[in-house]
Specification:
The complex is a heterodimer of chains A (232) and B (390).
Chain A (H helix, E strand, L loop, with lengths): L2 E14 L2 E14 L3 E5 L6 H8 L7 E6 L2 E2 L5 H11 E4 L11 H11 L5 H10 L15 H13 L5 E5 L7 H15 L4 E5 L3 H4 L4 E6 L2 E6 L10
Parallel strand pairs in A: 3-8, 3-9, 6-7, 7-8
Antiparallel strand pairs in A: 1-2, 1-4, 4-5, 9-10
Chain B lengths: L1 H11 L3 H39 L3 E5 L3 H10 L7 E2 L1 H7 L4 E14 L4 E8 L2 H6 L4 E3 L8 E4 L1 H7 L6 E4 L4 E9 L9 E5 H7 L5 E2 L1 E6 L5 H11 L3 E5 H44 L1 H9 L4 H29 L1 H11 L14 H27 L3 H6 L2
Classes of the chains: A alpha/beta (232), B alpha+beta (390).
Bound molecules: adenosine-5'-triphosphate (ATP) and magnesium ion.
């Protein structure tokens, strides 16, 4: 299996007044193509910080991050914008769909920013996530699960290599969660690598590896078969 | 570009009331600006036209405020100072003068009805100076009870040639011997008596209010004016070209004041725009963070927010010009009641492509400026922080 992402001694410190919050400490991580890694941990353990780092939304305090053979820590902001657009897709707990435009337009948005136009691709991706026929609906007309599907389609539209999902099922009804996780699993078949941050151990089980964070460090690795509770 | 535009407009439609109120602010400011621009041009144009129609180059009046004198001459009215008729003969004797006309005027003012009847005492010299005078009926024959009516007066009083006009205030009856064909000037609103008749009826024996002078050669104006001035120290002698520039200066100074108010209105509307757009940015911080996470660059976000501001301001600009035109009559009557010398022959606020364009362009610039800060603010949103805060 080929490596798509490699983090070495990744650190991210925040200054909060006079104290320093070590949100991520010397974290090493390797992600392969077609792999799902789940990140678990209590609130404030650094899950979101980790996703922001590997998603190039934020620059690390120290450490190295190599994605698809590129050392992204060396990139300038403009290059980073471009790199992110072509390699990373984001999915958020709160979907963040634009309420005034329809499903199709929401999914098309990254293409607009990338100055690409590909209506065919939009329709394909919508089909892939199971939203065929709902193109013209507004976000408020959709169920939570469908809203997250729109967000997933939007994340996939630029053909990213890595999908980063922060609590993707956090706001979904119980019965909506599994289908979304199944969709993630289906997406890895094409080689997509996914990192999912979650509180929810049931969802974490979809990961090939389950890493537990505490105070910005990986304190344990669980296996999907055996995980029953967090160590931290 | 269409997609960006659609996004901007849809964003504004999320808070329709707020957006409409903001646009309204710009609309009003631009309407005032357009009115002022138009007023500036047309006011002077109207004044020039009226002075041109007057047919005279130089005005001789008794000493007093020259602006007041100008108003009297242009619009008629009661003039408290008189000069002796003898002055007319003296003026006539000055070389370089082609034509003179001595005029006596009086008015009967009815404040209750807000009705002014302006009586003008003239002789055969007056039509010669005015040029386009065509009287239907006949000219004064020398009888003491003859009156010629301006076109509008005749309509207003419902009188025809041959009818009798009774002047209640003076207990006098006049025979309407002629009606002046429309001149499209203030003459249409006057009651004309022979000079001698007016002097008698209004008890102003051998008095004059103004002498209009037409020169043989306009280039000689300075010489002639100087000559008349040295002749009689109790006269105000001024060339109308000079009047035009002094009135122009007067208008200019009031314009600066009005302009200051316009700019305050514009500044207020600009702050309104800034506030609205900034609030819209704050409300959408997370959404902007998301857009950056899915590939929007700083300049994309800047562009989007700037576009929203431009839509607000340009719409306001277009509506503003429309509003100014729609309410032109109302604004005009207000301005007329507040300002002297406003010509009636020229609309003060009319349709002007260049002024409309200037106003819309101005509103675009306003948008560019007002949108700068909110757009910068939005562009610098950090996706991570925006999405994090819950
Ligand atoms: N921008 C920031 N400025 C200061 N401190 C921050 C910032 N972002 C995160 N932190 C801190 O870093 C630590 C890790 O936060 P992070 O959001 O990564 O945790 P998390 O595991 O995602 O928590 P949750 O499960 O609640 O989402 C926390 O102590 C948090 O307060
Ligand atoms: Mg988090």
């Amino acid at each position: 299996m080929s490596v798509i992402l490699q983090a070495e001694k990744l650190c991210r410190y925040y200054r909060r007044g006079s104290e320093t919050v070590k949100a991520l400490q010397e974290l090493d991580l390797t992600l392969h193509k077609g792999q799902i890694i789940s990140i678990v941990g209590r609130s404030g353990s650094g899950k979101t910080t980790l996703l922001n780092q590997v998603g190039c939304l934020d620059t690390p305090t120290s450490g190295r991050l190599i994605i698809a053979g590129t050392d992204v820590t060396a990139l300038k902001e403009k290059e980073l914008e471009h790199f992110r657009r072509n390699h990373i897709g984001f999915i958020f707990q709160l979907f963040y769909l634009i309420p005034t435009i329809n499903v199709l337009e929401n999914v098309e948005l990254p293409l607009v920013f990338a100055r690409r136009h590909n209506r065919q691709k939009v329709l394909e991706v919508l089909e892939l996530v199971g939203l065929a026929g709902k193109e013209k609906l507004l976000p408020k007309q959709l169920s939570g699960g469908d809203m997250q599907r729109v967000a997933i389609a939007r994340a996939l539209i630029n053909n990213p290599k890595i999908l980063l999902a922060d609590e993707p099922t956090g706001r979904l009804e119980k019965e909506e969660k599994a289908p979304i996780m199944d969709l993630f699993q289906q997406l890895t078949k094409e080689g997509l690598a996914i990192i999912i941050a979650t509180h929810d151990l049931a969802q974490a089980r979809y990961g090939e590896r389950i890493l537990e964070l505490k105070d910005g460090r990986i304190i344990a690795e669980h296996s999907p078969e055996t995980i029953v509770r967090l160590r931290g | 570009m269409g997609v960006w535009f659609g996004l901007a407009i849809k964003n504004l439609l999320r808070r329709p009331t707020r957006s409409i109120l903001t646009i309204l602010g710009v609309t009003i400011a631009i309407a005032v600006l357009y009115s002022l621009l138009q007023f500036q041009v047309n006011y002077e144009k109207g004044l020039k036209k009226e002075l041109g129609a007057l047919g005279a180059h130089v005005m001789v009046v008794p000493k007093g405020c020259p602006y007041e004198a100008a108003t009297i001459v242009l619009h008629g009215g009661k003039w408290p100072r008189y000069m002796d008729e003898a002055v007319l003969e003296k003026v006539k004797s000055v070389p370089g003068i082609a034509q003179t006309a001595g005029i006596i005027m009086d008015a009967i003012l009815d404040f209750e009805k807000n009705e002014n009847r302006i009586f003008m005492g003239i002789d055969e010299d007056y039509p010669k100076i005015r040029g386009n005078w065509h009287v239907q009926g006949s000219w004064f024959t020398g009888a003491k009870d003859e009156i010629i009516l301006g076109e509008n007066v005749a309509k207003l009083e419902g009188l025809k040639v041959g009818d009798t006009y009774y002047l209640k205030e003076k207990d006098c009856s006049f025979k309407v011997i002629g009606i002046l064909a429309a001149t499209h000037s203030q003459d249409d609103g006057f009651y004309f008596l022979h000079r001698k008749t007016l002097q008698k009826v209004f008890d102003l024996p051998e008095k004059l209010v103004v002498i209009l002078v037409k020169l043989a050669d306009i280039e000689q104006a300075d010489k002639v004016v100087a000559k008349i001035r040295t002749m009689d120290g109790n006269l105000n002698v001024f060339p109308l070209s000079e009047l035009l520039s002094t009135v122009g200066n007067l208008v200019q100074s009031t314009n600066i004041f009005v302009l200051a108010i316009v700019f305050i209105a514009i500044a207020i509307s600009a702050v309104g725009v800034l506030n609205t757009i900034l609030m819209a940015v704050y409300e959408r911080t997370k959404e902007i963070g998301m857009m950056k996470a899915v590939g929007a660059s700083r300049s994309d976000i800047f562009k989007l927010i700037w576009l929203e501001t431009l839509v607000v301001c340009t719409t306001g600009g277009l509506f503003g010009v429309g509003l100014a035109l729609a309410f032109a009559k109302v604004i005009e009557s207000f301005v007329r009641s507040a300002l002297p010398y406003a010509s009636r022959s020229e609309a003060l606020i009319g349709l002007s492509l260049s002024d409309s364009l200037a106003c819309v362009l101005f509103s675009v610039v306003l948008g560019l400026i007002a949108g700068w800060y909110p757009a910068c603010h939005a562009a610098s949103v950090k996706p991570m922080e925006a999405i994090r805060t819950e």
